[in-house]
Amino acid sequence: MARKRRSRYAPDQGLTTRMVTTMFLIGLLYVVFVGVLLALLRGAWPIILVVAGSLFIAQFWFSDKIAARSMGAVEVTPEEAPALHGAVDRVCALADMPKPKVAIAQSDVPNAFATGRNEKTALVCATTGLLRRLEPEELEGVLAHELSHVAHRDVAVMTIASFLGVLAGIMTRVGLYGGLSRAGRSNSNAALAMALIPLVSAAVYAISFLLTRLLSRYRELSADRAAALLTGRPSALASALTKVTGQMSRIPTEDLRKAEPYNAFWFAPAFSSRESLSRLLSSHPTLEQRLDQLSAISAQLAR
After folding, report:
1. Sheet of 101-105: strands edge to edge?
2. Which Gene Ontology BP terms does the record give (predicted)?
3. Is 145 annotated as a binding residue?
4. Are 270 and 259 spatial neighbours (Cβ–Cβ below 8 Å)?
């Protein structure tokens, strides 16, 4: 049996450990949540099991496509976007990995993201705002960052994990509708379920939110490190980071709000520098942390 080829991206054991731990805890949380629904809404257990199973399958197979479509990604050919395709080709050649689908999102917010369960289903997307603002070397640095998410498979973990809160909300509504409609208003169990299930759903969302945030911050530093080592140009990635982050405060608030729900996927978080709460709950490390790491890598490469 042929051994699977690995890319030239530097492996990150810390990232792998965190991904395995996050997926285990997310899966455990999912099972506990379904169990609580079954216990509180005994009359609706067939509906809950069918919905839980269906949504889990849909989450695994289609969450990457849903995320890409939600962020406005439209696949483009080499003829439609020769500069972007050329940059992706060069990074893939450096990394010795298959070329993903290439897409552009019509948005002035300067950003990029990658989705996909594996290298075969991967898609990398840049916004028109990013393409207009970055120099070729800076763009390659950003794309190398995004493709490292694909190579390390952390993009698949984040895509799946990020949808748990949404699924919890859907299952809660379905369970309440199916169980309470049978139980009737006079049933004390129905009243108890009515009070407890929204609280359980909120707890599930909060825990999944914290788990994905902790993983997301580490994986962004890991992707910066892997991209800088692959391209050998940490200064180009640092320049791109500085440009993108500096431009966020100049983007209209309406555009930032549209992009903000998908911050866990973006190269840089979409919020203005004035929003301190957003920074506190950000899916990314601070700009200073990212630049300090790139500066250290630059010194390392110079030696």
Report:
1. 73-75, 101-105, 123-127, 112-115
2. proteolysis
3. yes
4. yes
Q: Is residue 220 part of an annotated ligand binding site?
A: yes
Among 138, 146, 254, 288, the active-site one is 146
Chain segment 245-288, per-residue pLDDT in tens: 988 888 888 888 888 878 888 999 887 544 545 555 678 899 99
- Decide if 119 is catalytic: no
Euclidean distance between the first and the last CA atom of the chain, given in angstroms as a whole number: 41
Global pTM exceeds 0.90: no
Q: Where are the domains of the chain?
A: 15-302
